[in-house]
Amino acid sequence: MIRCIGGIIGPAPSNIEKPMTLAEKPRPADPQGDLQHLTEAILAFRDARDWKQFHSLRHLIVSLNLEAAELLELTQWQSDADMVARVADPAGREALADECADVLLYLLLVAAEAGIDLKAAALAKIRKNDAKYPVEKSRGSSRKYTELE
Ligand SMILES: [Mg+2]
User: pTM of the prediction?
Assistant: First the structure.
């Protein structure tokens, strides 16, 4: 069985040994409900400001992508070594964390507006990707699933 966020998601695709990914590692239960707790917090923040009127699904998706672009902007003209240095620098790390948080918060708003159980959707997508990228064909390869032999 595969263990991941939220527990067991199904049988392992093969008996080939592979390193356990972060998503597969068992984790302690969170009584606050992880994503649900965060969603409630951002909805409360929004509703206290009467901003729901601006939050159509389309506008939220646009905003999500704008925040993803702000995250990407932090990498503009930077080498991999520059990015390692940024993470080691408290101010640089905070800027990165802020943009990561903006992306996550808009994603939670998108999911809430569309009625998507983000945790269930993510677990289902891991299963789909597991089927598309069998370990025996994809391990150590950067090829797209359509190009795996
Ligand atoms: Mg931002």
Answer: 0.76
